[in-house]
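Quick one: structure for this chain?
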Amino acid sequence: MLKIGNIILDVPFFQASLSGYSDYAMRAIARDFGAPMTFAGVLLAKSVIHPRVFNNPSFKPGDDEHPIGAQLLGDDPEIMARAAKVVWKAGYDLIDLNFACPAPKVIRRKRGGFLLNEPDKVIEIYNAVKGAVDCPVTMKLRTSFENQSYDNFWDISSRAAAGKVDALIVHPRTVCQRFTGSADWEFLSEVKKRFPRTIIFGSGDLFSADTIKNNIKNTGVDGAVIARGAIGNPWIFNQLRASFDTKTVFVPPTVQQQGEVILKHFNLVCKLYGHEKAIRHFRKFAIAYCKLHPLRKKAQKALFSAKTAEEFLAVVKEWYNL
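Got it. Here's what it folds into:
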């Protein structure tokens, strides 16, 4: 059991916010396979405060989604606080503040990971958001912006911990590394040692249940946040549950079972975006799902050849023995 503010998770992991991926369809599949909490895609604060966003039915979480988190991206304390209030009133259960995103367009606008260069502003944003909502507020960080000087990270983390942040989510790479090299999980051991009373989650390079469980055990962090490792592999959640429960044995999905999940996921995407857009949107998921197929490249090529939803469904049925 793991408590984040008033949210109680029965396992020490959850699905991260993934821009362009973690829509209702992906979240629904993740919940089916045991994710105890999911996140919507990254939300730009200045967009969230626009009335048409709040009134869009797809913005609000479904009744079947709790607990669900929202991750906010922005650089203005007042706008971030207003956006947090909108998100909270829309029904999200937790707000995460993104000070880690390494995307070039985000960095150019001095948001996300860029704010590791401005500890005072990070804390000002945190305090503004914390005062605007009545739900858990967490913070996602990287270790530094462009070098191995961790002064700003320790400054931000110390002040956030003192300010009763509900959890710190740390991706142990620099912002400028983006996703190159290896995430330095040993760094997280020191984070937990310095802040033993703060909930610490690790993130980065989590693509297998064994890796995730070992990283949690070896570093002493409270849990892990699964991002890219969940794309096209929702089985990672029930595999993780099995690894924490000695009475449960995880059985890898058969090709046929993989196909059934692909069809369910694709049909949810069709309901969200319509058949024409669904084909384009789902290709990035198809690439990931095909990694589990014994004839990965051939299956991927066949799926990519589909031009309509009907063709796609037929190809899935053919290649996954349905």
